[in-house]
Each structure stands twice: as structure tokens, then as C-alpha cells.
Fold these 2 entries.
Entry 1:
Amino acid sequence: MRRPQAPLRKDSPLKLLLVVAAALIDSDGRVLIAQRPKGKQLADLWEFPGGKIDAGERPEEALIRELAEELGIVVKLACLAPLTFASHAYDDFHLLMPLYVCRRWEGFVTPREGQALKWVWAKDLRNYPMPPADAPLIPPLIELLGPG
């Protein structure tokens, strides 16, 4: 069940949080999702790998850095293709998250931050509880990858 989004507010602006995410796609056409570890905000929910964009950092640079830190893989800029984005108002901040598709990387995907990882068909992504901001990213992936 979707939680209703907060109405737009002009009197008290929300802090804008910029994050970036990747839909890593394996040779079978499955997408990698990661489960947020216990003790973190939104623990146990599944999400696309990625993270915060540091000040002065381009989204692609941030994603390359985050994928190396979280998964131990090397991604080249030319292998990132923007697909869609999410814009979601949480209670205390507004999240803006571009989603890039990546089909090529160097190294083996390894959980480096205590997270569980799973390769799933795009059509099955809705079977995994995700943060509200991630849900709008699923239809474009299904359209791109087909029923699986």
C-alpha cells in the first residue's frame, strides 16, 4: 500500500537530498537489488545500489564511487545510461534520484557493507518491499527489460 505523499509546501521548504542509483543488469537481464542492513534508516527494505552525491560531484562520478564502495566493482562512465528519475517528498526532506542503467562493469559484485544482494527479474521487483521513492523506478525498468 502506498503512503500518501506530503502536499507541496511553500512556507517551510524541505531540504533537497540528491542521491543516485544504478540498475545493474546481468547477462540474463536480471536487475541487482540490495537490502538495507539493520540499524540503518529504512532497514530491511530493498533498493537499487547507489548513494549520496557529495558537494561538487557529478551524479555519474558519485555512482561510480558508490558502486566501488558498496559492491567492489569498477564502472566506466561510458557504461552508465540515464533511464529515469524519482522525485519523492519524505516527511523531513525531498529526495531527487536519477537512475542509471549499467550492463558492463569490471570485477565481481560483492556485498561490502553488510547488505544482502539479489538478482531479480524486473517484473518481480514489486515483490520486494522498497522505499517509497524507489517504486516509480520499476515501470521504466519493466518496459526496458520486458517480462523476463
Entry 2:
Amino acid sequence: MRDEQTLKLDDDPLLLVTSMYSDGDMKRRLGRDAYSYRYVYRAFAPLLERWGNHRDVSGPSVALERAAAEASSQRRQPIHLSFLPLHLMDLVAGIPNVAVPAWEFPDIPSFDLEDDPRHNWAKRANEVDLIVTHTQFSRSAFLRAGVKTPVHVVPVPIEADYFRVADWRAGQRVVLDCPCYVFPQPTAMPRAPRPWVSTETGHLRTRAGLRQLYKKCVGLMPNPVGKAIHRTARAVRAGLWSARQTLRERDVRELYPPLSSLTLSGVVYTTILNPFDARKNWHDLLSGYLLALRDREDATLVVKLVVSAEWEAAALAEMFAFYRACGLSHRCKLVFVTAYLSEAQLLELTRASTYYLNTSRAEGSCLPLQNFLAAGRPAIAPPHTGMADSLDDDCSFTLASHPEPARWPQEIDGGYRTTWHRLVWQSLHDRLRASYETARQHSAGYQKMAAHARGRMRELVDAESVWPKLAAALNEGAARFRRKHRGLDVGESALLRKAI
């Protein structure tokens, strides 16, 4: 029986959900644009079923429109719930449209980026019936832009299994059954090729180099007029990105063969990131860890790379090149994991970890961080942007940072229109050393932080804490749409619009 908090509707509600890709395609799409929206939808799915039936209609917009018309003809109330960036969301006339975007910058675009009106987030936000964000920081960005549509904050619920992960204890050993790359290696390391170097031209395909080539290609076109030309320009950029993946002298996996399994003990730091996302700031993460704990043989940093098999070699080439360029000898361990991990394996990695480490410049909310906090693993992270709701000094070693100019990620060649956060590197260094000493020498202090982390996440992202907020948001979205269309019931309104 549906929960009593649900709005009493004349028609049986049906949530029509759109998101990125599909569950079966996620393994191949890891690291692609907006891939994480599918994980957010999956996290909400049990609560959506609790509110009302839902159907996944991700894909071409015609599938969504057909599903809405079918539901209306059956006297059900269709509600479009979109787990997508606003510029990728399709709006369906005659039914409520609820947007669930993630955002990690203090400003949203309020004009047509790349001459595409879909990228005007402020305008599109005012065209939907309700906006659901996951953090107070994201909500403030919409309000700051003058958006009139109601904006609710509904955190992403955490899988209950994370709350049941056993406490970390000194002396524990956990074996993770997956291939991994471990440094330092027992023998001298061969020098890895510089990433993206063509042996024919010797040209380094850096982001700047790709942008120059993109401009050159656009310059060969007729004067850019209309959307078709800009779609062509975006296709050129996509082609250049694809070419970047193949520009390597040698597969680095041949130089550094992986181990078949990973045994974790001592003080283990874990981070989960997409190495091609500039917001993740992994250069500071690696250098900070290696310099802070280089003489601690029982310290390990596990870097779980969120990349598809297609991009694995490219990601490793870039990270190995930076690692070698640091020129640091060290006794602490550095581990790279590129394999796709099942939910059970991710839970085992969480159990093996002592801390979660994040050095990002901006975050929507950082679901891995919240998972680890829910498991009683304190964090080393900066409490800015979307992470501000999760972190405090009682559950984390907070890192200092300050705003610096940045551009929005969907801009091809934009200026400094917003900000993200520059990490204070010395703060990272010092907090890593302090966290290590706490885990090794101050067990009571560590356990107190771990307990506070679990409690904070229970209040914020436990399913029972999230449920009332989600129900209230969906109820308001449906009620607001009805007020806008007073005099017609939702089913009649949809059919009338379709007939017109």
C-alpha cells in the first residue's frame, strides 16, 4: 500500500524516468559525460517505487512522449522525472516535468552557451514544474540566478549495506580479488611513454593542443550560422577526443603488468575518481600523499579509476607519466585499480579502508565520500561545494581551500564565468600526516570520528531520512502542475494537448 504521505491523486501516478544510458550499458560508459546520473537514479529507485510506480523510458524523446500519451489514455497521471543535466532534459507538454540535476558551481548559465538555448540553465529551470537538487550549495546556485521554480533539497540515499560495514580495526587484512597496479615495484621501473605523443609528428596532444586543432577545424568551416554548424563543431571536438585515446606510443600495461589481487592492511586511504575530469585534482592528491607519507611503509593509497575498458590504457598512461615525473622514492604504497568493481567488491574495498581521500576542486555531492562516511570511515577532504553538507571537523580532517576562477564544463572555449576551489596543498600534506598518526596512535579518537561519520550520514542520506523529503518534493511537483492547469484534470489536459 502506498505511503500515507503520498498526495491523494484522482489518477494513479506513473513516474516516467529518464536518465543516461542503461544499467546494462554502464560498465562500457564509465567516465563518460553525465554517467553518474544513472547511479543516482538507481539509488532513488526503491523510494520512487514507494511513492508510485515508475518506468524507465531513457532514450529518444519520442519514447518518453509515447509513454506519457499511453499513461494518459489509461487515466493514469504521468509525471516526467529526469535524472539528467538540464541541457539534456526533454520537456513533455501536458504533464508535470520534475528535474533532478547535479551542480557543483556557485553560478548556473543564464544565457545561451555555445549559441544553444538548451544550455541556458536559468531559463530551462523556469520551464519545469519542480527542481530537486541534492545539496544546499546546488539549491543556492539556482536561487542566486533568480529561478522561480521551487527547488527542493533531497540527498541521494545511501545503500543500507554501507551502514553495516564493520568498523576499521588496526591489524586487519582484506584481500580484494581484482587486478591492480602497485608501486613501488620490486624492480626498477622502465620509463613510461609520455601520453598522447604521436611518433609520426612528435606533437603532444594536450587539452590545449586539442583546442587549437578544434579551432583550426572550425576556422575551415563557413561562418558559423545556426545550430547545424555548432552541432558539427561539437562532433569535431568529439572526434578529437576519440583520437586522443589512440595517440600513445605503447600500452603502459605492457610495461607495468598488474597483480591479480590486492592485499590491504595498515592505514589505507581510498579515493574514487574519473582521471579525465579536471575537477578531481588528482595531481595534488598523488603528490600530497607521496610527500606526506613517503616513509610510512604501512600506508597505502588506493586510487580507483572510474574508466571504461576502452579508456583504461589512456588513463594509466597519463597517471603513470605524472607519477614518474614526480621523481619520488617512497616506502608507502600507491595502488591503481581500473577494473569494474561489483557492489560486493566496493563494499570490501570500503571495509579495507581507513579513510576516504578527496582533493576535488568542485563536487556535486560526492557519493563515494558519503558511502565511506556511512561505513564509519572518516574523510580527508575540503568542505566546499556539494561536500559541505557532509563534512565537519568531527567526522573528517578538513582541508583548506579558496575560490579561483573557472569555466563551466560544458563550454568549448569559455572564459572565467564561475569559480571552483583551489586546494591549499600544505593543508593536504599536514592533514594526511595527522590522520595517519590518529589511526596508528589514537584509536579512541579515530573511533569517535568514525561513529560521528556514521551518525551524520544516518541523518542526511539514510533512506528513512531521505524518504519524507522526496515524498514532499514529488507531491509539490504534482500539486503545482495541477494549480497551473486548474479546471482540467491532468489526463484530460495531456489528451487535449495531444489532439491539438
